[in-house]
Each structure stands twice: as structure tokens, then as C-alpha cells.
Amino acid sequence: MHDDKVLHAPPADLDLFDTELPRLEDALTRRIDADPENVERGLAQLVLTVVELLRQLMERQALRRIDGGTLTDEEVERLGAAFLALDRRMTELREQFGLEAEDLNLDLGPLGRLL
Amino acid sequence: MSADLATRDVALVDLLDRLLGGGVVIAGEITLAVADVDLVHVSLRALVASVASAAPQDVEGTAREPEP
Amino acid sequence: MIELYAITDHPGPPLPPVADTTLATAGAGSLAAVWAPVADAPAAVTIDGLRRHEAIVEALMADRNLLPVRYGTRVPDDGAAARLLIERRDELARALERVRGTVEVAVRVAAAPDASADPARALAAVHHPLAERARAATCRVRAGGDLLRGAYLVERGDVEAFAAGVAELQDDLADLRLLCTGPWPPYSFTD
């Protein structure tokens, strides 16, 4: 019923594409961790979630500008470097708190697509 | 994931991207519940307005590192 | 409480019948919002719920131009919906006109096995060529996994030709794999 939406797919390599499904199921069943020992981690989780949300918003804005052709090549390059750096920093911060990308709610499943 | 399952669900990502990340944002408030436990209530007007004013300067300058 | 599905022209063709849902329109001027009543609780995010919602929007799209509304958009009643239509009349009318006669096609790009490709490569090799053949185009890039997720506004009659174009592109690209789905309502082109 749903593969009638596929217009073109590479025959053998479908697993190269994100499926997100396992992570979505995680999001649907995850509960907020209220254990006091994990409160700090929980706070970090919330903060990094918001940061990730903002990063995605900025990325979207940047892409609009790129699409709009209003940026010079140099500016596009600087943008790319900026987002790479931000991405790297996010990974560092997550590792610091023992968080996976999946732990930042807004990055995955329904919550990750809010904005 | 078997090739069959992958084909069946391969459009799901595109569906999620669109329903949850696209479409007209006509009301300032969207309230979603996940698994009856987590409740996410985002006041979009406030958040989008604050990011929209910050973003152009952000992307034109050097990378800003988020406060840990 | 009512849930909004789409913004359409007003007046328009009769609403399609939908099982377990009573669709209605709230009209204001040349715009209408298609809605259905819901229980007073947040929109549950389940795959089934999302699919059901999407099926309704696509049924509407079959015989009319529309702007899909973001999932979970709820307002107190049809009066509130009409007021929003009046408040945002100009931008909604503009957006509705922009997508008239089109549907959205999605293309996702991943690196082929044993290939090292990056978003810039996906942008140049896939997004820009496809954008040339579309009324409008937008995309998101990422390092790893889906290098690029593109959305293209394609004339309703041209979807097959566009898909054939994607298949042709794929034939020439050894380092990338393309996945194309659609047609979708124009979720990525509402603002």
C-alpha cells in the first residue's frame, strides 16, 4: 500500500537510506527519565535538544539563502564550514554527557521534525 | 532490514519529514503527544521569531559554539 | 476542538467521503480551511495517525489545489479557523497560487557503497539538475546517511517524466544512490 509512493529506487541498495523507523519507535515508547541520579543528564538532554533544534532552523535558513542565490561562493563555503563545526561541537557535547543522537528528542522521529 | 520491509517503509521518512516538518504553520501553537507520556508544546511564533531575527547574522559570521 | 488538514480555494468541489471522519470547510473570502472535529487532547503522533491524516490530504489533493497544514494544527472551532484565514489572507493566497497545478516529489541521495560522496557532490550532481526541471526546489543536506533530501514542485502531469529523469540521472552516477517518492502534497512549499 505504501510502496506505491516510490517513483524510483535503486534495486539493491535501499539500506543505504535512513529508515528512521527504529528510532521513531524508540521515541514513541520513551519515557522522560525522572531518576535523580540522571537529572543532570536529563538537563543536558533538554539543553542539547533545544540547541539541535536551533541548529536545524539555522541550517534551513541558510539553505534558503543558498537556494535563493543571494550568497557568494565564499559565503557558501563559510556556511558549510560553520555548520560542520557546529555539528562537530554537538557531537562532542553529546559524548560528554553520554548521549546518543537519538537521545536528543527533537532530532529524531516526530519531535525532530517539528521545525 | 529485509529488502521487502525497506521498500514498504521507505516512503515513511518522506512522510514524517513532510507532515511534521512541513506544511502551513497557521496556528501559533502545535501540541503533540508522544506515547501518552511526553508532551511537547511549542509556541512557534515566539521561537521562530527569535531564531529568524538571529539566524541571518549567525550564518554570516563565524561558527558560534553553543553554551554547554 | 477542530483539526486542520488543508487550505484550499473557496468555493471548491465537494469534500471526499472519509471513513470515521466528518470533513467540513470553514470559508473566508476566496480561501477555505478543511477541518474535522477532534477530541480535546493533543494530536497523538503514531504512524497510523499520520498515515490516516495524509490519506485525507491526498484525497483532497486529487481534485483540488491546496496547501497542506502541518500535522497537529488545532484551533477551537471553525470560527477561529475563518479568522486565521482572514488574518493571513494575503500570504496564504500567494502560497496557494504558487503551488497551483503542481505536486511535490521527494528525492533522497545517499553515497553508494564504497563511495565517498559528500553533500556538495549531491547538491551539484542531483539537486541542481532536478531543480532546473521543477517549478521550485528546496533541500536539506547532512553529512552521512541521507546526504541530501530534496523536494521539487512538479506540474501534475509531469511526475512520470520527472521520475524518469531521476532514473536517468541515477544511470550516470556511480557514487550516489537516488530514492524518489511521490507525489506528495506541497508540504515543502507553503511559505
Textual characterization of the structure:
The complex is a heterotrimer of chains A (115), B (68) and C (191). With 115 residues, chain A is an all-alpha fold. Chain A has a domain of 75 residues. Chain A is 54% helix and 3% strand. Chain B has a domain of 39 residues. Chain B has 68 residues and is an alpha+beta fold. Chain B is built from three helices and two strands; from the N terminus they run ααββα. In chain B, strands 1-2 form a two-stranded antiparallel ribbon. The longest helix of chain B is centred in the C-terminal third of the chain and has 17 residues. In chain B, 50% of the residues lie in helices and 18% in strands. With 191 residues, chain C is an alpha+beta fold. Chain C folds into two domains: 97 residues; 88 residues, Alpha-Beta Plaits. In chain C, the strands form two sheets. In chain C, strands 1, 2, 3, 5 and 6 form a five-stranded antiparallel β-sheet that branches. The longest helix of chain C has 15 residues. The two termini of chain C are 25 Å apart. Chains in contact: A-B, A-C, B-C. β1 of chain A pairs antiparallel with β10 of chain C.
